[in-house]
Specification:
The chain has 212 residues and is α+β, with helices and mostly antiparallel strands. The chain is built from 9 helices and 4 strands; from the N terminus they run E-H-E-H-E-E-H-H-H-H-H-H-H. The mean pLDDT is 96. GO terms for molecular function: glutathione transferase activity. This is Hematopoietic prostaglandin D synthase.
Length: 212
């Protein structure tokens, strides 16, 4: 079978890689969604001479040999290439600011992820409660105010920011607390609109269930 031109290497989880998958899916771009365990990645990294400190995700273009490393770098490349990076420099700056904010939220989630990986679900519940109180609740209020009555967070068409926000909230809802978005109906409606787009709806319906 012919190898797909694009190969996205990532862990078998949603995490920072899922938004990249969603951009490719929404744009109708075929790609090899190559999911690895940490042990498999270490083996592949050594076999293919990636630097020792290379972290997933990695995007490889087998047609031109281009390799991009890191979720932000890949995200910016795909957003530009696929038309999800706004219509002006000002909109790109708004998108970048929203993505940076999501990154800080993801970093603050680390204790929840650690508890999940060790299957310490009592600890996970406690860490999630702390995360909600100290980080997420305030950010959700800010995002609600930012979106207002608009369909999209930036400009008049879907962007990297819309996909990233919807994905992060969907992951939190599916993996940690399926009821928290009930308190944020504006954001929940936005998430449902994004996940209801035809290509994404088909992908979500067959998406693998993971723990984070």
């Amino acid at each position: 079978m012919e190898r797909e031109e694009l190969e996205l290497l990532g862990l078998n989880s949603r995490g920072r890689t899922e938004c990249l998958r969603l951009m490719l899916v929404l744009a109708g771009r075929k790609f090899n969604d190559h999911r690895l365990t940490i042990a498999q990645w270490r083996e592949l990294r050594k076999k293919e001479n990636f630097p020792e400190d290379t972290l997933l995700p990695v995007l490889r273009n087998h047609k031109n040999g281009h390799v991009i490393i890191g979720a932000l770098e890949i995200g910016r490349h795909l957003a530009t290439d696929l038309g999800f990076y706004g219509s002006s420099i000002e909109e790109q700056q708004e998108i970048d600011a929203l993505i940076a904010d999501l990154e800080s939220v993801q970093t603050a989630l680390a204790p929840v992820i650690r508890a999940t990986l060790t299957k310490n679900f009592d600890r996970q519940k406690l860490c999630w409660t702390i995360f909600m109180e100290t980080t997420l609740s305030e950010r959700l209020i800010q995002l609600t105010q930012k979106l207002g009555q608009n369909l999209f967070f930036v400009g008049s068409k879907i962007s990297w920011a819309d996909l990233a926000i919807a994905d992060q909230l969907s992951t939190f809802s599916s993996c940690f607390d399926r009821f928290f978005l009930n308190r944020y109906p504006t954001l929940n409606a936005h998430k449902m609109r994004i996940e209801g787009l035809p290509n994404i709806r088909k992908y979500v319906a067959r998406r693998r269930q993971t723990s984070f």
